[in-house]
Design goal:
The protein is built from six helices and six strands, in the order αααββαββαββα. The protein is of the alpha+beta class and about 150 residues long. Strands 3-4-6-5 form a four-stranded antiparallel beta sheet. The chain has a two-stranded antiparallel ribbon with strand order 1-2. Helix 4 packs antiparallel against helix 5. The radius of gyration is 20 Å and the shape is elongated. The termini are far apart.
Length: about 150
């Protein structure tokens, strides 16, 4: 029963923009599942559902995995439209952005989970990237420069 319910929850959150436990409870009951709010709460934890921003600008439950391609395209779009320059210095990379855009670019960059990055820090118009090695920083600089020269 639990497996069927979990499968139904995943189906429902994919089909509808469900943003509350009460709403998910209602959809489950309409689908023939006799569940309590406590059960729905446990299911959300077990399925590791998160709230993400929908295309309509409203928060909704999701598995998080369906947003990976969205974040990838957002990163490349933000980057190409907002970045002015990229410079490597030892194992760090400094990315200069248009004023006010660094945090958005950095957030989309972080979602990409670059393997050579130790961490990032964004200000108003500058992003600092700490890379694992100087080679990672040089490679990042080269790749990022290609993105701004499209």
């Amino acid at each position: 029963m639990k497996t069927r319910r979990h499968a139904k929850i995943l189906e429902l959150i994919k089909e509808f923009d469900i943003d509350t436990q009460d709403e998910l409870l209602r959809y489950l009951r309409e689908s023939g599942f006799d569940v309590t709010q406590a059960t729905v709460s446990r299911d959300i934890k077990e399925l590791r559902l998160v709230k993400t921003l929908s295309h309509a600008g409203k928060y909704r439950y999701s598995t998080g995995s369906e947003n990976i391609s969205d974040m990838s395209s957002k990163f490349y779009s933000f980057f190409a439209d907002s970045v002015l320059s990229v410079e490597a210095a030892q194992n760090m990379v400094v990315v200069r952005c248009m004023t006010g855009m660094a945090q958005a670019v950095c957030a989309s960059m972080d979602s990409m989970q670059w393997p050579g990055f130790v961490g990032t820090l964004a200000g108003e118009d500058t992003i600092f990237i700490v890379c694992r090695t100087e080679a990672d920083a040089t490679e990042t600089q080269e790749e990022f420069r290609k993105l701004i020269n499209r």
